[in-house]
Structure formats: C-alpha cells, structure tokens
C-alpha cells in the first residue's frame, strides 16, 4: 500500500482549502445554516458546475470523473474542517451510489449526470431513526427497520397507475431541499414483506417536507410525510437492497470519518493558536506542561483517526476486501469529540459562549454520533462482521 497522495489528490486538497478559506468563514457558515436550503446554494454551485466535485466518484459514462472514494474523502475532509453545510453526504455519499448500484440503465442515464454536475441533489429517506441500522453500521440491516410490513414506517402499494407510498420518515438528511428522494418502503404485506427503494420527485402531490430543529445546525434534517404519493421503483423488484445499502453504508461511514478528522484537526489548530496567545500568571497558557500533554494526546488521536479513515477509503476504492468504514467512523467520532471538548475547556469562559465557534464542533461530534453511532455499537458491529467473538466449535466426543 502506498499511503502517499498523488499530485492530483494534493491539488484537490489545495483547491478546496483555498476556496473554503475565502467562502466558509464562521459568519458564512452561520448565515448558510439559516437559509431555506440549509446550505449556501452558490457554494454548492461552485463545487458542482465549476469544480465537478459531486461527480468525482461517479463513472465517466454517467458524467462523472471516474475517480475513487479517496478523492471524495479528501473533499469531505476539507468541508469538515470548516463545518460547511452542503448536500455532499446526502447526495454523493448516500443517494448517488444507490442509484448507480440499483438503478436501471434509463434511471442512471436520467439522474447521474445531473447529480454529477450539481444540478440535482438527492436524499435517502429511511423510516424512524434507523438510518445507521439501514446502512448496516450498527446492526444487521435485514430486519424490520423499514416498518416490517406493520403499522408505521413507509408502506408501498402497487396500483394501476404505478406505485403509491404511505408513511413518514424522520431524520432525513437534507430532505427538505433535495430535488429527489430515495425512499425505503415495505411492500408485499406482512407475510411476504420486503424493503425496496423508490424514487420520489420533489414536486410529487401528497409529499410534505418539514425542516426539523436539530442539535447540529450544519447537518440539516427533515421530516418527510408521504400521503398517497406516486413513486417509481428504483431498479428491479428482485434487487438486493439490503446488500446495496450495506455497501453504501461503508462508503458513507468513510466520508463521515474524514469529515470528523477534518473538523477535529481544525478544532485542534484553533485551540493551539489560542493557548499560545492567552496569558495566565504572566505566561502563555500553552507553556504549561499539563496543557501541552493534553494537546499532544489530542494530536495523536487525530492522526490515528486520519490514518484509519484513509485506509478505509483505500480499502473500499482499490482492494474491496474489507468493510472498515464503521471502524474508521468510530475512531473519527472519538477524535472529534475529544478535540472539541478540549477546545471548549482550553478556551476557558469564551468556549462556552454561543457566539464562539467551539460549541459547533462539539455539536457536530454529538450529532453525528446520534445519527450514525453510537461508537460502541459501530465497533461491536465490525467485530460481529469479522466474527471476532464467534463461539468455538464444540469439541468432538
């Protein structure tokens, strides 16, 4: 394994660092979260139409660049550094890979080029609070996480005019502004129910979308209500939806891990800069040995999380031997939580104020763990998948 980034990959990092430095100041981020879309549409347009970043990991035949998950992870890390709200995760990390994996030729031809150029955003709608389970990150996703054919969840019924959806989905990332929804729904009744994915357009009659108040404003969420909504089946009825969701979950976890690494690294940088300037007892706070040790521990944790995140990206893109995204995400979330907590503490009184940015990093860590964790379940699921604690075979009599 060659862990060095190529010159093209380094250029992606340099370009994004320059762009986010100019366009993603703390004031810009706060303003973007208060827009109806929950992000800066002009910035997303720059990332899409000018830089082509949404299509990095999509095939060239679908209007993409044909790069790997590693390049997309670099983008996620740079956006994570500034906590930039954007549809990147929902569109490129969740929805687009599902369309590419399950969609028919006509569906891919109609949707993927628009996703690649940034003109179409998409979101994955999973009933209840089961997003992490649906993606196979914290439990086996072959169960009844989408309603199980019972009351609740989202149900799909075949009628003369096509498929109709009924139900509700909570915690849909960017669901209030996405131009396309991929809705997980049960069909076939109770006895023969199974989960399928359906395409729902933003202007579909009976679709009600409401932006929710969330802990992390930079990660907007919505409640999606489907009241006899017409939908199009994604792919075929015999598609392996659970397998596709698990594969996408590994990639999405990798992107989340690199986002967390970028945020943790930036929180650490800001904290180091502050303790060099803040004086106590006639000397900089950063000169005290206890402070040095605390920041050194954070640095080691951030670098370990970065190594885990990019190993997961490399494994998914090149060898496809291990689904280690969940482990990388657990490491990244822990690093961000530690870096954010130390940032709040070492900034002293101002670290606890609403006006300072330290609390935004703490909310990103807590919000992502609520959505995609918790950390101990991410690790437990990885151990289960690797059969680390499988019961030994009974000794032959």
From TrEMBL:
EC supergroup of this enzyme: oxidoreductase
The species this protein was found in: Streptomyces citrinus
EC number(s) on file: 1.-.-.-
UniProt keywords, alphabetically: Oxidoreductase
Identification of the protein by name: Acyl-CoA dehydrogenase family protein
